Amino acid sequence: MKQLTIAGQTVPAIGIGTWHMGDQPAQRSAEIAAIQAGIAAGARVIDTAEMYGAGRAESLVGEALANERREDLFLISKVLPENASRQKLAVSLDASLQRLRTDYLDLYLYHWRGTVPLAETVSTLQQLQTTGKIRAWGISNFDQADLNELWSLPGGNQAAANEDLYHLGSRGLEYDVLPWQRAHQLPLIAYSPIAQGDVWGHHLTTNEIVQQVAAAHHATVYQVLLAWVIRQPQTLAIPQTSSIAHMQQNIAAGALTLTAEELAQLDQAFPAPTTKQPLDTL
């Protein structure tokens, strides 16, 4: 099972995403069961945010994890840009902790940039880390220019991870962001690693090469897409599913290694960027 080190902890390279979870009461029991199945299958990382369902995803996660050993988990949440000020950040954090039924986060991310000065957000995150309510902090939806700015600030180089959109159909990070992060030893958290089931028109799962690679490994197309993402060093993928079977398959993809020939075929079908690309976000 492929692993990475993030915020000083070694965790499996495939975790559990929770975007869109908690929105439909009729799905609640299935979503809780899926999260619990993922943990039983070996996942340690659960990624959520105050934005997801206006806190409903965090509440769902809190319920799902109520009987788990907290020290076995790596819990990530995110603060909205409008709450990332010196006055509001601690309040948002406390609300997230209450919904999650925990007294600390392993990683707290600035969800995306807003109007609050970055230096103010960073200094406040640094202060919150000293309280023990967060073990580490990081950022999300940061491009290379944002990362350069962050690193120029006092304490900015203490960021523990950057969470960006990354999948086979969205490879813009490979041109500049990923090389920058490798050079600065900053792990990547890849959100929407299976392109949200092709809802954005990438047609990854119906691609002939992807299907052929999956067949060769007796794997699903989603497992191939996840294995492709975590081929990158120090990369964590956080797919979301409300299906127990799909959750178990997602976690099992951490043991799937694609061959050099297969990677070359996928490169041909979905070429890497040769110029700077605008940062993809959802």
TrEMBL record:
Which residue intervals define the domain NADP-dependent oxidoreductase in the entry?
13-269
The catalytic residues are 52
Q: Which residue ranges run through the membrane?
A: none
UniProt binding sites for substrate = 111
What GO molecular function annotations does the UniProt record carry, in alphabetical order? oxidoreductase activity
InterPro entries documented for this protein? AKR, NAD(P)_OxRdtase_dom_sf, NADP_OxRdtase_dom
Which residues are listed under the site Lowers pKa of active site Tyr?
78
Q: Which Gene3D superfamilies match?
A: NADP-dependent oxidoreductase domain
One Pfam family assigned to this protein is Aldo_ket_red
Protein's recorded name: Aldo/keto reductase family enzyme
